[in-house]
């Protein structure tokens, strides 16, 4: 007899301001990872709220951005599930130049999944929902930035079809 482990199900939806407090641990996880890898570039943030309520409200209400959350389905009907991931997507229109035509693309600015829920398809679902939202809003390309130290994220995005476009370099002065 094979025993199948129960994997909690989740849904992806647009964030609401009511999610503000539940998003805090996810922002802390994201920021903490970057701060641990590069503390000079990512100095510590206040312990109370890594993003202000006004900032989150702006993200939620801005037509060219989507703040998506992955919510674990509650075990008790009528209750809200816990947030286990989030993705911030920004639409960008690049004006024409001497070489490039007008381009509408979207950038995934942040994508994070709770450590206890990784390898369950949450990041893939957030990425797919981000892509769907962007297509509905006229995007033709997907763009994101990954810091060189973030090998896991690079492998994940490459497995989802992303390819390096250019290399940005820095030199401290």
UniProtKB/TrEMBL annotation:
GO molecular function per UniProt: acyltransferase activity, transferring groups other than amino-acyl groups
Keywords: Acyltransferase, Ribonucleoprotein, Ribosomal protein, Transferase
Domain of life: Bacteria
SUPFAM superfamilies: Acyl-CoA N-acyltransferases (Nat)
InterPro entries: Acyl_CoA_acyltransferase (IPR016181), GNAT_dom (IPR000182), YpeA/RimI_acetyltransf (IPR050680)
Residue intervals of the N-acetyltransferase domain: 10-173
Any one of the GO CC terms: ribosome
Secretion signal span: none
Short name of one Pfam family: Acetyltransf_1
CDD domains (alphabetical): NAT_SF
Descriptive protein name: Ribosomal protein S18 acetylase RimI
């Amino acid at each position: 007899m094979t025993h199948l482990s129960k994997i909690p199900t989740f849904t992806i939806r647009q964030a609401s301001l009511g999610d503000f407090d539940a998003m805090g641990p996810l922002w802390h996880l994201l920021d903490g990872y970057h701060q641990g890898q590069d503390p000079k570039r990512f100095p510590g943030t206040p312990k109370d709220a890594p993003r202000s309520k006004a900032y989150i409200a702006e993200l939620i209400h801005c037509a060219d951005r989507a703040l998506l959350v992955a919510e674990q389905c509650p075990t008790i009907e009528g209750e809200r599930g816990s947030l286990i991931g989030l993705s911030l997507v920004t639409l960008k229109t690049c004006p024409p130049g001497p070489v490039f035509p007008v381009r509408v693309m979207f950038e995934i600015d942040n994508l994070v999944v709770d450590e206890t829920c990784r390898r369950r398809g949450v990041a893939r679902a957030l990425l797919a929902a981000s892509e769907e939202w962007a297509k509905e809003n006229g995007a033709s390309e997907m763009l994101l930035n990954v810091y060189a130290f973030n090998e896991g994220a690079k492998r994940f995005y490459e497995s989802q079809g992303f390819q390096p476009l250019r290399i940005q370099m820095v030199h401290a002065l």
